[in-house]
Structures are given as C-alpha cells and as structure tokens.
Specification:
heterodimer; A: 118 residues; mainly beta; four-stranded antiparallel beta sheet; 47% strand; B: 114 residues; six-stranded mixed beta sheet; five-stranded antiparallel beta sheet; globular
C-alpha cells in the first residue's frame, strides 16, 4: 500500500496526558497537511509543510500543539496536556506541488487518527 | 469573507436514483474547486478538481459542473449505489499572492437506501 498512512488509528487518553500522532505521506509528495475534524463538520486546517519547512499554522494550533517534519519525510503531531475539547479525528494529507505557493495538486488523505480524551 | 456553502445539508434517496448536490462559494480570487467523498470514520477521497476554465468533469458516475460567473458548482450522481452513502464535501482553493488556501464546505450527507 503506497497511500498515506497514519498511526495510531485510535487513541484514548486521560485529560492532561500528551499524545503523538505520526503520518507517513506518499513518498514522492513534497507537501504534507494536518487537519482536525469533529463530528458533522468539515476538516479544519491546522498546519502544512513544504518538504521540511512548516509554512503555515492555523490559529487552531495553540501552544499545546506542535508539528514536525524532520528531513521532509514523515511528520508527527504532538498535543501536550490534552483537554476534552481536543477529542477529534486528526487527518493527514499529502500532495505534490511544483511551486511553494501553489495549491493545485490533488490531496491524498490518510484514514485519520481518532483521539478521545476522557 | 471567503465561504463555501453546500446544500442540502442531508439527503436520502433510493438506490438507483440520481441526485444533485450544490455548492455555492464566495471566494476571490478563485483558483480551483474540488469535490471530496468521505465515508464515515475515514479520510476524504478526491472525486474531481476543476479549474476556472473547466465547466464539467466526470469521474465514473460522478459529474461535477462549475459556473465561475455565478460561483456555483454541482455534483451529480447517476444511478446511485448503496456505497455512495457518504459525506460529499466541496472545497475551493483561494489564490492570494504567492500563497493559496483551501476553503472547506461543511458537506452534504447522502444516504442511499435499498
């Protein structure tokens, strides 16, 4: 399977704990996105990388959230001191863009990591 | 304000019937428009990407139309199947200088009953 893979698929944690999600994009893709989606809503943009550079962060990404993409390959999204409001599906997507500022490539999504904070 | 509105919010049809989902956007300047299908609990899957110059684009039983003048798009599903039950999300790419953003609609939830 050469699609976008996310791990873990499901995570249940207690409030205050830290969690980390991993995303492995399609190998030839240079763009990687993180989205958050709650029930009945569309995906909300969190951040994206062009290769290893993090080019934009949403206001949704509080100081408890951090994302990395070392070496421009896989990415991790860490949430520190989780709150019940962080319960959501965290989606990763990748695409190939020739130009840094472009947004014309097709996005390929992973199956998501569902977080439940008790 | 850049917005994407979809209608209806939800729809139930019988297997074999056709249906049309609507997307209106107030986005400027426009770059491209996408339709995604999202099954419950899974990631979205791209159906079509349409640029300003494209009026219609098909992907199997899915046909998307785009009217850039009225800023409307539709997704027509022909001969629906049970597996078409999903959320269909319209996404518009905004062009802003050297950066572009994706504006997501809330989706139309489609249920296909036997």
């Amino acid at each position: 399977d050469t699609g976008v893979s996310q791990d873990p698929r499901h995570k249940i944690t207690k409030r205050g704990q830290n969690v980390t999600f991993r995303c492995d994009p399609i190998s030839e893709h240079n763009r990687l996105y993180w989205y958050r989606q709650t029930l009945g809503q569309g995906p909300e943009f969190l951040t994206y990388f062009q290769n290893e550079a993090q080019l934009e962060k949403s206001r949704l990404l509080s100081d408890r959230f951090s994302a990395e993409r070392p070496k421009g390959s896989f990415s991790t999204l860490e949430i520190q001191r989780t709150e019940q409001g962080d319960s959501a599906m965290y989606l990763c997507a990748s695409s190939y863009e020739m130009l840094a500022g472009a947004n014309t490539g097709e996005l390929f999504f992973g199956e998501g990591s569902r977080l439940t904070v008790l | 304000k850049n917005q994407v509105e979809q209608s209806p919010q939800s729809l139930i049809i019988l297997e074999g019937k056709n249906c049309t989902l609507q997307c209106n956007y107030t986005v400027s300047p426009f770059s491209n428009l996408r339709w995604y299908k999202q099954d419950t609990g899974r990631g979205p899957v791209s159906l079509t990407i349409m640029t300003f110059s494209e009026n219609t684009k098909s992907n199997g039983r899915y046909t998307a139309t785009l009217d850039a003048d009225t800023k409307q798009s539709s997704l027509h599903i022909t001969a629906s199947q049970l597996s078409d039950s999903a959320s269909y999300i319209c996404v518009v790419s905004v062009s802003a200088g050297n950066n572009r953003k994706l504006i997501w609609g809330l989706g139309t939830s489609l249920g296909v009953n036997p």
